[in-house]
Specification:
Chain A: It is found in: Nucleus. Chain A: Residues 3-123 form the Exoribonuclease phosphorolytic domain. Chain A: This is WGS project CCBQ000000000 data, contig 00102. Chain A: Keywords: Exosome, Nucleus, rRNA processing. Chain A: InterPro entries: ExoRNase_PH_dom1 (IPR001247), ExoRNase_PH_dom2_sf (IPR036345), PNPase/RNase_PH_dom_sf (IPR027408), Ribosomal_Su5_D2-typ_SF (IPR020568), RNase_PH (IPR050080). The complex is a heterotrimer. By secondary structure, chain A is α+β, with helices and mostly antiparallel strands. Chain A has a single domain, classed as 2-Layer Sandwich (Ribosomal Protein S5, domain 2), CATH 3.30.230.70. Chain A is built from 4 helices and 9 strands. By secondary structure, chain B is an alpha+beta fold. Chain B has one domain (40-234): 2-Layer Sandwich (Ribosomal Protein S5, domain 2), CATH 3.30.230. Helix content of chain B is 29%, strand content 28%. Chain B has helices at residues 31-34, 106-123, 150-172, 212-234, and strands at residues 16-17, 43-47, 56-63, 69-81, 91-98, 132-143, 181-185, 188-193, 198-204. In chain B, the strands form 2 sheets. Chain B has a 5-stranded mixed beta sheet with strand order 2-3-4-6-5. A 3-stranded antiparallel beta sheet of chain B has the order 7-8-9. In chain C, the strands form 4 sheets. In chain C, strands 1-2-3-7-4 form a 5-stranded mixed beta sheet. In chain C, strands 6-5-8-11 form a 4-stranded mixed beta sheet, with no helix packed on it. In chain C, strands 13-12-14-15 form a 4-stranded antiparallel beta sheet, with helices on both faces. Chain C contains 7 helices and 15 strands. Among the domains of chain C are: 3-28 and 269-361, 2-Layer Sandwich (Ribosomal Protein S5, domain 2), CATH 3.30.230.70; 150-182 and 220-258, no CATH class. Chain C is an alpha+beta fold. In chain C, 23% of the residues lie in helices and 33% in strands. The longest helix of chain C is centred in the last third of the chain and has 21 residues, at 341-361. The chains are: A alpha+beta, B alpha+beta, C alpha+beta. Chains in contact: A-B, A-C, B-C. At the B-C interface, β1, β4 and β6 of B face β2, β3, β4, α3 and β7 of C.
Amino acid sequence: METSMRVLSHVDGSAVVSNNGTKVICSVSGPMEPKSRQELPTQLALEIIVKPAEGVQSTREKLMEDQIRSVLTPVLARYLHPRQFVQICFQVLEAGESKDYTVKEVSVGINAAVLALVDAGVPLLSMCTGTCIGITSEERRLIVNPTEPELLECASVHVFCLELGTDENEKIDVRNVLLVDSLGTFDESQLFQVLETGEKECIRLYTELRSVIKDKVSRDFVWKQ
Amino acid sequence: MSVQDRRRILGPAEAKPLRFAVDSETSIPEEGRTDDKKTGKESVFISTDLVTNANGSSYLEYMDGNSDQVLVMSSVFGPRPLRGSFQSKASVSIQFKEVTLEHFNTGEIKEICTFLTNVFNAVINIEKYPKSGIDIFIDLIQHSNSNPAEEENIIKILPTCINSITMALVDAGIEIIDLVSAGSVDNSVVAFIRNGHEIVGIWSDDDKVSDISRLIEDCRVKYLQNKQTLVQYLR
Amino acid sequence: MNTNTALQQDRHLSLETRPCSRGFEEFRDVLINDGNISRYSAKCQNANTNNVIGSSIVRSGKTFVITSITGGIVEETLSANNEDDVGEEELITLSEGSNRLAKNASVHPVVEIQRGRVGGPTDEEMITSERLHKTLLHSGILKKTALRVLCGVRRTDENGKTTKIYSDEILEEERKISESNNRRWSYVLYAKIQVFSRNGPIFDLCWNSLISALKSVQLPRAFLDERAADLKIAVRTRGRSMTIRETYDILCDPEKSLPLQLNQHELGYGSNYGIIDIDPLAQLAKEENEMDVDKPTSVLLADIETEAEESSIYSKLSLITNKDGQFKSATIIGGGSKITPEMIKRCISLSKERSKDIESKI
């Protein structure tokens, strides 16, 4: 996974994440004044926009927005900014999958969003990471983060997102499953395999994202010594 | 449409809708149907608890003597606050939609809506509801018609639509001057209130009606029948 | 969601009942029929003007979903080297062998939820449509081959009497006629899904309605007029380009039809669940000694209904499975209470039972 933060200068936070042929840029603006119809009296309102690599928005992007929203909503400390609003905008630069799939774009987008939210300084309750998993139709083998040709061979594809944090003892703490979205043909044992494998991969991504953030913070606060 | 609708999944643009061949030999065999034709009497089924998230609703199944069906559902939303400038009376809007088939074109639908809006503007006590909107949605679930002649269709569904809206308004508890109902004869529909002493709407597809008073008289007979049915249900 | 309703909900739950007065793991009753909407319905009265080829009405509690399926025909673009017909099928299987989705087809659903407003589709309508489309595509329930048009030819003899010939019904020597025109058509299916009295999540309801409507679909036989089968006329020339209008349209037989072939063993039905914590403070203590239970307990609710439940439950599961536990889709959203593997297992066993129940009703 390659990441870079603060790539855009006109927004509050931004990040680019690319992984195995999929590249998404995410920008975060806010917390700021919402339009009256978006305003929530007790909580921070979210607007999520996904723009596809090719063409214009369609129902496909609406579904992606909905999935990303369900992952990001619980990790944001929304009670800290009532009557305020954050806009999170995703531009897919390289889809890395055909129009019939969205797993790679969603999982990469979620990782990008976390970095961009940290960059913007929007308070988070925990971190979240996302990955995608495919199960091949013939050998019933799990492929973590499949490439485009591998994706085509899969009987089922899964997006998996985990809410993670680190407790006082510096131990990684798995807080909840934020999203599992599985499509295709699979059975109960495969679903649990996905949960198991996905957890390992999400923890790996979590440590990776943490070190990226650590580097950034130490660079940003270099004057503080 | 020049701009493709991106908010709906419409399928390939070059696809053509199915067109069924019409040739005399293969038309639907009539024998099976004639049995229950004419023998059946007119019948109406009414229910008013189908749509739960509306303020009032009604569902009417109307079966005529030829066992042709008209299934109509009406839901009333409101009176609810109207945005914008002050209005001393309620504004009534009526939307007509076909749930399954799409027989009517947008022009016809608009005509139906305008006609019904005029009828119900006269019947609903709109002075009672200032600053409010009353939105009525009519869903035509099905109407079967053995005679595919275009003009007859609207005539067949209109009385049921009017009856259905009346029931939905009653269910919603919105004040109306009187139960409005309608009767149809040939190519005309006449809507009445006050036991047929007052006409609230006339729709006619016939351009040479010879005897208008005769027509109204015929419609009134059917109106009284329809109204009787509604009253019976409400008891 | 205001605090009052949340508290009310918690109190309800601590008394082991729900706002809709169902038990925690109790589903709403489901009624499914074809609604007599399709032209192929047993009691159809308007077969000659009806273009609906499959339908269903699903009623679950007060909510009901009406699905009507209509069709279209689209000409498939064939590559030039396919003309020699030899081994065409094998070629396709070779090139698409590794691409699982290339063989699958889907329908084009438009979901409309009645809400007493006019205007464009809402986000929920768009998302539900897209999910239905995508789930069906990935499920493999509907294959492209099932939508292929086996086109016939209509012959008109001197007396004006017409006969229709379909390639799979005819004798060997006549088969040439249909093979002489090397074009291919496919059916396209559109689903109009209308939801009334929405009172909870609708995806699984719409899915069940769509599947039962698809099971009732009859594809009409289609044919070309023999005289017109090879005719093309230029209608407009502009510079070097020319628009060629085909002089014929593919027509459908008003009488003959074939049932749509679905992969029966792939069929699955949907159900949804919610997981919610009961706040210990809101619990009405039954006995004094229970007061010291300070940890929030979470409960599993089947078939989310009412606004109170929908707005206070953030952890949701939506599963599509058959009775043997073969899944077609699983969506788990953990926005609220912690979702444990045991909970997921419980949901899976419930959804298998539910699927069996629904299957028996279609």
